[in-house]
Specification:
Blueprint: E1 4-14, E2 29-39, E3 43-47, H1 54-61, E4 69-74, E5 77-78, E6 86-89, H2 101-107, H3 116-129, H4 145-157, E7 163-167, H5 175-190, E8 198-202, H6 206-212, E9 215-220, E10 225-231, H7 243-257, E11 275-276, H8 292-304, E12 308-310, H9 311-318, H10 322-334, E13 338-341, E14 344-347, H11 349-356, H12 359-373, H13 375-386, E15 391-393, H14 394-401, H15 407-423, E16 427-430, E17 435-438
The structure holds adenosine-5'-triphosphate and magnesium ion.
Length: 444
C-alpha cells in the first residue's frame, strides 16, 4: 500500500438545522460515518445519486467545510481549515470575467509568496501545459466552454498541488470537448506531466468513472454513506470496447439502480469481496417524485422490448441520466409493475397487463397497486374514511410526514401522493383550501 495522503475518520455531516434545506432532501444527515483513504498515485472517482453528498465530501476533504463529527487527516495530521496542498476544479468555471486568462490563472497563486516574475513564469508554464498558449490576454467571454474549463485547470495546476480535486469538471461541456479534455488530462496524469500525486474526481458519468479511475467509490443517499469501493480496471481494459469495461459499467449501474439492496448481493459470486458499507434500515416508505405519465411511458417502453430490458440500455434509449431514470425505476418497483433484477428491468404480471390495458383499465390497475403498496395513499384513504365529513386539511398529513422528513420533503412526499391519488381518482385535493376529500364517500 502506498502512502496515505488524505483520510477521513468517521466523518458525519449535518447541515445547519436553520440552514435552507432544498427540496428533495430527506434526511438532515448528509454524510454518515465516512471512512475513506486516498493514497499517493491514485485516481479515485466518487459516484453517487444527486444529493448523496459527493460535493460535500469533496469540500470536507479539502478542508473548505468542517465535518459535524469525525476528522480529516493529511499525512496523518488532523486538519483544521483549507488544505493548501490541494486545488479544486469546479463544474462551473468560476472565472473572473474582468480578468484575462493570464490574470485568472495568476489568482490561483495569491496565497503563495512569490515575486511578480516567478508568478508570471509559473502562470505561463501552466497555460502552456493546459493548451491555452496564445490566449493569455483573452477574456473569459471570448472563450468557448472548453477553453474556459482549461483556464480552471490551469488555475488549479499552477500551484503544483499535491492533490487535485475535481467536481464534475466535464459535465458543463459538450460531449466532444469533454472527451478531448478528459484525454489530455489523463495523458498529463499518466505521463507525470504534472506534479500532482493523487486525483479525486466527482462524476455522474459511470463511463467516465470506469475509464479514468484506479478506484471507484459509490455513495448512497439519505444518509450519504459509502456503499462500496470497487477497484478500477487494469489500464489496458479501460477502453469502452473492452469486456471488462462493459461488465464493470453494468455492475455499477446495477448497484446504483438498487439503492436499497446490500451491495454484497449484487456482486458476481467469484469476485473478491470489496469493502462495502452498511445500508441504513429505513422504517418508512419514500415516494420517488415522478409523475404517473412518465412511469407509464417507461412500462410501455419495456413492454415494447419484450418485457425485459437492460437498465443501462434503457437509460441510453431514454437519454436519461441515472438520477432521472432511477426514480422512475423506483416507482415502477414500488407499484410492483416491474422488478429491477440483475441490471435489467423486468415487467411483472400486473406490469404486462398495465402496458396492454386501455386508459380505463390502466387506471384501475394503477388504483389497485397504489392501494396495495403505497403506505401514504393507504393512510390518506384510511383517515378520510374515518372522518365523518370525509374531508381533512393537508396539515393533518403534513404533521405525520414531518416526523420522518424535513419540512420541504414532507411537502414533496405529499405532492407526489396527491399526484398519484388524483390520477387513480381515489381522492380529490382542493389546492386553494388545502383540503383532501374522498372521491366517492358513499361507495366506501
Ligand atoms: N449549504 C448547504 N446547506 C444545507 N444543505 C445543503 C447544503 N449544501 C448541500 N446541502 C444538501 O446536502 C445534500 C448533499 O449535497 P451535495 O451537493 O453534497 O450532493 P451531491 O452528491 O454533490 O449532489 P449533486 O450530484 O446534485 O451535485 C443535498 O441534499 C443538499 O441539498
Ligand atoms: Mg455535487
Amino acid at each position: 500500500m502506498s502512502e496515505v495522503l488524505l483520510e477521513t475518520r468517521n466523518v458525519k455531516k449535518i447541515y445547519d438545522k436553520d440552514g435552507k434545506r432544498p427540496r428533495g432532501v430527506l434526511s438532515p444527515v448528509v454524510l454518515d460515518d465516512i471512512n475513506l483513504q486516498i493514497a499517493a498515485g491514485e485516481f479515485v472517482t466518487l459516484l453517487g445519486p444527486s444529493g448523496s453528498g459527493k460535493s460535500t465530501l469533496l469540500r470536507i476533504l479539502a478542508g473548505l467545510l468542517r465535518p459535524t463529527e469525525g476528522e480529516v487527516l493529511f499525512k496523518g495530521v488532523p486538519q483544521h481549515g483549507p488544505n493548501p496542498h490541494l486545488a479544486i476544479v469546479f463544474q462551473s468555471f468560476a472565472l473572473f470575467p474582468w480578468l484575462t486568462v493570464l490574470q485568472n490563472v495568476e489568482i490561483g497563486m495569491e496565497a503563495l509568496e512569490l515575486t511578480r516574475t516567478q508568478r508570471l513564469k509559473k502562470a505561463l508554464a501552466a497555460i502552456d501545459t493546459i493548451g491555452l498558449d496564445g490566449f493569455e490576454d483573452a477574456y473569459p467571454k471570448e472563450l468557448s466552454g472548453g477553453m474556459r474549463q482549461r483556464v480552471g485547470f490551469a488555475r488549479a495546476l499552477v500551484v503544483e498541488p499535491e492533490m487535485l480535486f475535481m467536481d464534475e469538471p466535464f459535465s458543463a461541456l459538450d460531449v466532444l470537448t469533454a472527451a478531448n479534455l478528459r484525454k489530455e488530462l489523463l495523458g498529463l496524469w499518466r505521463s507525470h506531466g504534472m506534479p500532482t500525486r493523487a486525483i479525486v474526481m466527482v462524476t455522474h458519468n459511470i463511463d467516465d468513472a470506469v475509464q479514468m479511475a484506479d478506484r471507484i467509490v459509490v455513495l448512497g443517499a439519505n444518509p450519504g454513506i459509502i456503499r462500496v469501493e470497487l477497484p478500477g480496471l487494469p489500464l489496458e481494459q479501460r477502453t469502452a470496447t473492452s469486456e471488462g469495461h462493459t461488465n464493470l459499467v453494468d455492475l455499477i449501474y446495477r448497484i446504483m439502480t438498487s439503492p436499497h439492496e446490500d451491495v454484497a448481493n449484487l456482486l458476481p459470486t467469484h469476485a473478491p469481496k470489496p469493502k462495502t458499507g452498511e445500508l441504513a434500515a429505513r422504517p418508512y416508505q419514500v415516494l420517488p417524485h415522478v409523475g404517473i405519465g412518465d412511469v407509464t411511458g417507461l412500462i410501455e417502453l419495456v413492454h415494447a422490448r419484450g418485457g425485459r430490458e437492460d437498465l443501462y440500455q434503457l437509460g441510453r434509449q431514454l437519454q436519461l441520466e441515472i438520477d432521472d431514470l432511477f426514480p422512475l425505476v423506483d416507482a415502477a418497483d414500488l407499484l410492483d409493475l416491474a422488478d429491477a433484477a440483475e441490471g435489467d428491468l423486468v415487467l411483472t404480471e400486473q406490469g404486462k397487463r398495465f402496458a396492454e390495458a386501455g386508459v380505463l383499465e390502466e387506471k384501475q390497475i394503477f388504483r389497485d397497486q397504489a392501494l396495495a403498496r403505497v403506505s401514504l395513499i393507504q393512510r390518506i384513504m384510511r383517515d378520510l374514511r374515518a372522518d365523518p365529513e370525509h374531508t381533512l386539511p393537508e396539515e393533518h398529513f403534513l404533521k405525520l410526514l414531518k416526523e420522518h422528513f424535513s419540512e420541504d420533503e414532507a411537502w414533496a412526499q405529499l405532492e407526489t401522493a396527491i399526484n398519484w391519488g388524483r390520477y387513480a381518482e381515489l381522492f380529490a385535493y382542493q389546492e386553494e383550501q388545502g383540503v383532501f376529500r374522498l372521491e366517492e364517500p358513499e361507495a366506501s
